[in-house]
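Protocol step 4 of 5: obtain the predicted structure for the target chain.
Materials: sequence only (see below). No template structures provided, no constraints applied. The aim of this step is simply to have a reference model before the mutagenesis design in step 5. Sequence pasted as it appears in the construct record:
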Amino acid sequence: MAAAAAAAGTGSSSSSSASAVAAAAGARDDASGVVLVHPMVIMNITDHLTRVRQQTSATTQRVFGVLYGKQSGLSVEVTTSFELKYAEREGGGIEISKSYLEKNIQLTKEVFQDHELVGWYATGPGPIAADMLTHRDILAHSDNPVLLKLDSDIAEDQRDLPIAVFESIFAEAADGSRTLVFSPLTYKIQAGEAETVTLEAVANTRPDVENDSVLTHTYAKTAEAMRRLSERVAVLQRFLREVHSGKITPDRHLLRLVSDVVARIPTADSSDFRGALLSDVSDTLLTTLVAAMAKGAAGLSQVLGRLEDGKDAAALSRSRAYGAHAFAGEYGDYDMGMDMGTDA
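Step 4 output (structure tokens):
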């Protein structure tokens, strides 16, 4: 166990980190409580991964984010999640934007006053050595954060959810030193009534056509129903015209059934119908406008972020160029390598 703990602390390899996790699990008697994970958190993570893969056309892309919820004693309830802004580290792992994370925590506390940062999430197989570097960054904002890993590489015969939850504990090495390692936790899916209804609605409104939106699919079903209704009303109109012209002998019972059917169809020329229709059209257009504005704001935020990164890079390049110019002006054609060789 000591060797595994040391390997996880130094971040030598993913297999060493896995050994450290197993060793830590054996060294403790499951003292921690159960982590309650809400289904919306899992949906947010999978949506994040799907969008990134579609934007980058990569199947091995990993995504990262933070988890918010409530913590009481040893029990943790994860209720929502948000994506992280980060940069890839050269040696693996990510470097979190501290300003972005602090702003995210502040805004979340304003909306969910009883919530706090309880951990972070990442996609991919069980914790690797590079994850400990990110976990140490999260420790600066949470006393005991959890790590939720979602493995997107799912086997066809797999029946369990591909997620796992970990906490960080100190494992004692052979030399007496203590190393921070990951230890698995027990988790349960906690769904409220509202979440259950939402999940059922999402599961039952999947589009039949690939790359088609749910909204388009719903409107297509409504249009098809209206088309069928129009065809049946046309049949009734033709029947009544032929009865009125004397081509068909009137059947009182059949005419009463037709009257009942016509009475159930709302009158399209009534003021109530026009008001309800205009209200639905206005709500739909407003929803579409808000969605377009949100999409535009997100695109503008990405463009501004890239411009800021470009300005920082340009400023750094100018600073280096100025430093090289100043050095050349100060020392002329001074050759450091030749001078060092002469001194030697």
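Step 4 remarks: DSSP finds ten helices and ten strands in the chain. Residues 1-31, 334-344 have pLDDT under 50 and may be disordered.
Proceed to step 5.
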